[in-house]
Amino acid sequence: xxxxxxxxxxIFVATTSILxxxxxxxxxxxxEQIEETLPLCEEFQVSTEENPCRxxxxxxxxxxxxxxxxxxxxxxxx
Length: 78
What we know:
Layout: H1 2-37, H2 60-73
């Protein structure tokens, strides 16, 4: 009886690890494909969820400027 339970436990662990491995690999491939297909943002183009774009030259200064603009618009609490 004990031998059968150990075999079932090993099968469960192996199946779970294989499932985890394939799920992780699938998600990793999806992220790479999404990042490759996003177009670059133009200077005044707004990135939305429906129309996403990526910027290659993001710096700390541009992030702080964006946060200042959000604070001035009243979107963020001061």
